[in-house]
Amino acid sequence: MPSEKGSRPPSIAVLISGRGSNLQSIIDATRSGQLNATIAVVISNRSEAPGLARARAAGIEAISLNPRDYANRDLYDRAIVELLHARHVSLICLAGFMRLVGSPLLEAFGNRILNIHPSLLPAFPGLDAQRQALEHGARISGATVHLVTSDLDGGPIVLQSAVPVLDDDTVDTLSARILIEEHRIYPEAIRIVLAGGWSIEGRRFVRSTLVEKPTAR
Ligand code: GAR
Predict the structure, then answer these.
(1) Is 17:44 a contact under the CB 8 Å cutoff?
(2) Ligand 1, residues 22, 131, 153: which to mutate, most atoms within 8 A of Cβ?
(3) What is the spatial distance between Cα 146 and Cα 156, in angstroms, rounded to a whole number?
(4) Residue nearest to atom 9 of ligand 1 (CA)
(5) Residue 117 catalytic?
(6) Catalytic one among 117, 136, 146, 183?
(7) Domains observed in the chain
(8) pLDDT tens digits for range 25-38
(9) Looking at residue 34, what is its pLDDT?
(10) How close is the Cα of 93 to the center of ligand 1, in Å?
(11) What is the pLDDT of residues 148-198, one digit of tens each?
């Protein structure tokens, strides 16, 4: 997956369903040079997703695909695969894409689909992760970027960041604290995955080459 020296930056696709603030953080990282990648296309399953406008404002192709226009989930997923292959996409980034990814996509992009989730997985998978953390009385929550497998929110973890859960937190205040970390770690996780030098061992994402050495304190 890593691009050769002198070649064009790898193309990624971002799949969204709504606001698109993580999409924006990825756009910003490609613009600032933090992330050496081109966003080839943004796809939403909802035509009213505000993230589509963010993509267009940045000059990125933005496509809305309505699942209701397809007879079943496999046909919908295959349509996405076709769009992505036509654009030579090497990595898919799910950013608030609120649909299960089916086998056509998983088979076409094995270990090349990333997702961001607003909890420290494997705690609180599925919907309303921030509400789940509050209801369980968790003292710490956070954000996780992981590779997508058929196991819902259960794929190998690439990066995580923790935040405290405060006594007076609401879903909104906790979500806002977690979102700051999401925006920080998602572009970094994409950079790590695109750089290569990693493997999957069991459930684990293992970096085999130490790209950065920890700084001595
Ligand atoms: C983010 O908090 C993301 O972690 C979450 O949806 C939000 C999308 O926000 N994703 C999930 O819960 C996936 N299970 P955004 O559209 O502003 O990026």
Answers:
(1) yes
(2) 22
(3) 5
(4) 96
(5) yes
(6) 117
(7) 9-110 (3.40.50.170), 116-208 (3.40.50.170)
(8) 999 999 999 999 99
(9) 97
(10) 12
(11) 999 999 999 999 999 999 999 999 999 999 999 999 999 999 999 999 999
The residue type of 58 is A
Q: Pocket residues for ligand 1 (CB within 6 Å)?
A: 16, 18-22, 51, 95-96, 116-118, 129, 179, 182
